[in-house]
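Q: Here's a chain of 110 amino acids. Please give me its 3D structure as C-alpha cells.
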Amino acid sequence: MEQLSTTTSDFSLCPHFAKTFEILGKKWNGLIIEVLLNEHEARFKDLACQVEKCSDRVLCERLRELEDEEIIERVVDGGHSSRPAYRLTQSGLELAPIMDAVHDWSKKWR
C-alpha cells in the first residue's frame, strides 16, 4: 500500500498577495474604500455615518493604516475649513475593478 506523504507542501503565497489581503481583509477597510470610491472625498464624520457600527477609535486607526499604505490620503482644504477630508490615492482608485468584482461575486453567491 502506498503511503501518503506527511511532509508540508512547497507552496507559499506571494508576499505581495498576502500583504494585500492583510490590508483589504481587515475589518472596515473594504467599506471605507467603497465609500471613498463612491464619494470621491469624505470627512471623518461622513465616513463614520456611512461605515456604521465602526467606532470612532477604530475608524481613526483604519484611516491611519490605509494612509500609511498609501491607499488613501488626508487632505486639508486651505480655505475657510481646516477640517481634513480623505480621498483615495491612485493606488486606491485602482482598487475599483476589484471592488466591482467583489460586488458581482456577492450578488451571485450571497
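Q: Can you summarize the key feature?
A: The beta strands are 42-43, 72-76, 84-88.
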